[in-house]
Amino acid sequence: MSDIADRVKKIVVEHLGVEEDKVVDSASFIDDLGADSLDTVELVMAFEEEFGIEIPDDAAETIQTFGDAVNFIKAAV
Amino acid sequence: MFDLTGKRALVTGASGGIGGAVAEALHAAGATVALSGTREGPLQELASKLGDRAHVVTANLGDPDAVEGLPKAASDAMGGVDILVNNAGITRDNLFMRMSDEEWAQVLDVNLTSAFRLSRAVLRGMMKARWGRIVNITSVVGQTGNPGQGNYAAAKAGLVGMSKSLAYEVASRGITVNCVAPGFIATAMTDKLNDDQKGKILGQIPAGRMGDPAEISAAVLYLASPEAGYMTGATLHVNGGMAMV
User: Fold this and answer.
1) Which of the residues in chain B have pLDDT under 70?
2) DSSP letter at B243?
3) pLDDT in tens, B22-58
4) What are phi and psi of A17, to 5 degrees?
């Protein structure tokens, strides 16, 4: 697993308090990992800080799953 | 009674009567304060009176760039913002039929839009800290209406709706959003009224007198305190009984 995916997973596990093995590429933050809409905003904020990137609102809306997040961040850094 | 040691508070309109009293009260409880206003003179005066833990961050909230820069300036000065008091307000009174678009927009910009933008800017830090206090200073006229103040009353009532919506969104993060609605308080803003106007107003106040800025800042201090953690989306009316709502 790439370094980026590890770092994203760490943030998700810490923020949502979920088991690491639940955080798979297809896992939806809201449907599978128990996030509410404000959690998703906080996750995006955390990704922005961790990777020093800007995630615009319209891009943030497309990030639904853990895999989406990793792919977006890989393309952005 | 309330201990704000280690908390960092940004107070807008701190060169005014109520804002100055709010800054003093928060500071006296141990908070570090950033004093914002348009006039640097009175702010510097207040800051030197307060001594340590007081910073001056001037900003004209009618200027969108200044609103953008203020949270950053306050954060740079204090290391963060835990408490935001949106107190800055202006009046451009006119009868509704004579009110210009400009008079309307100026009052909405300073009294409502700046509060929205400042609140949005400080929320990130509060969310991370899982603690925050936003206190918006509204007015009895936001509840009752007042002839000649269609713009001001709209902005103040708008703050209440905004506060309740935001309170819903961030309550689970330890952040509270409340309003304090002063009645007639003896400040430069109400000094502009003539004796006849004052007489009429006093006749409507069961307490029979205008309020003191310290009676408003006491309410703000409570809402800013850790003890007020279970109160959110509320408005404290401090008006001598003028409007019992």
Assistant:
1) none
2) S
3) 999 999 999 999 999 999 999 999 999 999 999 999 9
4) 65, 40
Q: How far from B207 is each of B51, B191, B201, B243, CA to CA, in Å?
A: 35, 19, 11, 11
* CA–CA separation, B149 and B155 (whole Å): 10
The residue of chain A nearest to residue B128, with distances taken between CA atoms, is A42
Q: What average pLDDT does range A12-40 have in this prediction? A: 96
Enumerate chain B positions whose Cβ falls within 8 A of a Cβ in A: 124, 127-128, 169-170, 172-173
**B189, B91 contact by CB (below 8 A):** yes
CA dist A54 and B40 (Å) reads 35
Tokens of B4: 């704000």
Instruction: Name the token pair of B107.
Output: 């009052």
What are the tens digits of pLDDT across the range B217-243? 999 999 999 999 999 999 999 999 999
pTM: 0.92
B2 phi and psi angles, rounded to 5 deg: -100, 130
**What is the predicted pLDDT for the residue at B197?**
84
Pick from A38, A39, A54 the residue to mutate for testing the B interface (most B CBs within 10 Å). A38
pLDDT score, position A73 = 96
**What DSSP letter does each residue of B79-138 carry, written as one string?**
SS-SEEEE-------B-GGG--HHHHHHHHIIIIIHHHHHHHHHHHHHHHHT-EEEEEE-
Quote the pLDDT of residue A71.
96
Interface touch B169/A38, C-beta < 8 Å: yes
